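Sample intake sheet
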Amino acid sequence: NNGGIKMKNILVLNGSPRVKGNTEALTKAFIEGAQENGNKVTTFDIAKLTLNGCIACENCYSTGTACFFYYYFNKIAEALEKTDIFVIASPLYWGSFPAQLKCIIDKFYAFEVGKKDLSGKGSVLISCCESTDESEFDIISLSYDRIAQSKGWNVLGKLLVPNVAAKGDVEKTDAINKAKLLGKSI
């Protein structure tokens, strides 16, 4: 029983190519917290998918699916249209998203072409990096804010975790607990 709170559909894009890495650990903790409140979570591990970038063909939704070419993006787009809360979980690569995740984000152009209104959804950013300098998150954070703003999403939280390079480093911080609490707060 979740105390009468409405169950939410949550879509998580795990953008980390590293299996069992710090981003994955944070994502799992967030999901655990969200599920404890009775929320339904759908996760896509982006690095495991075969992806190509958007080619701006502008045939989006012309055949009933978001992308004219790419099957996996269509599954993600379908889930995103139905979700209440959208979570981007990403390691920091040169100040931004890894290429695999950026392919998906670039394909959000389909929602513009298809005139799909995704406004009003909640959104969360979870990111980690090896640098001890928290300003390293400035670009990914700003990029995420602009995406959320352009889509009319409500930013429900950000968890930015510096100083975690090797697998398991995040376990030596309080970030796992913070991720779980963030999930529970949804």
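Comment: The chain has six helices and five strands. The beta strands are 9-14, 40-45, 85-91, 122-128, 154-161.
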